[in-house]
Amino acid sequence: MFKVSGIWVSPFEVESALITHPAVLEAAVVPEADAEGLLKPKAFVVLRPGAKTADLQEMLKEHVKQKIGPWKYPRWIDVVESLPKTATGKIQRFKLREGAN
User: Fold this and answer.
1) Looking at residue 51, what DSSP letter applies?
2) Other beta carbons less than 10 A from residue 57's beta carbon
3) Would you state the pLDDT for residue 100?
4) Mean pLDDT across the stretch 78-96?
5) Interatomic CA distance for residues 2 and 62, integer angstroms
6) What is the DSSP secondary structure assignment for residue 85, as one 8-state letter?
7) What is residue 31's predicted lDDT score, i.e. its pLDDT?
8) C-beta pairs of 2-8 under 8 Å, 24+ apart in sequence
9) Residue 33's beta-bridge partner residues?
10) Are the C-beta atoms of residues 73 and 15 closer than 8 Å to each other?
């Protein structure tokens, strides 16, 4: 959990909202500092085969705003081929945080 605009945000909640979009297969969310040093959500998404990517980032941001609230939407969205996982299938968010810095 991390704070955005003084409100606690759960990465799992943002991920759950992202995967309800028909274009998204998997998602992972980590905190990232913006230009002022404030933490904001950053998402990494794996798209479903054949998903349209035109205006996808803005569509996903709006989708999350509608699902869980305007302060919780990811400010940055990276489309990736796969997410780093353990042998048991758990997403390794620390690797995403390391790559984000």
Assistant:
1) -
2) 15
3) 56
4) 94
5) 21
6) B
7) 95
8) 2/31, 2/39, 3/39, 4/38, 4/39, 4/40, 4/41, 4/71, 4/72, 5/38, 5/71, 7/71, 7/72
9) 39
10) no
Please name the amino acid found at residue 25. Answer: L
Q: Provide the whole-model pTM.
A: 0.90
Give start and end residues of each alpha helix (H) in 1-101.
11-18, 56-68, 93-100
Nearest-10 crossing angle of helices 56-68, 11-18: 120
Which tens digits make up the pLDDT trace of 46-67?
999 988 888 999 999 999 999 9
Spatial distance between the Cα atoms of 65 and 70, rounded to a whole number of angstroms:
4
Pick the closest to residue 74 from 59, 61, 56 (CA basis). 61
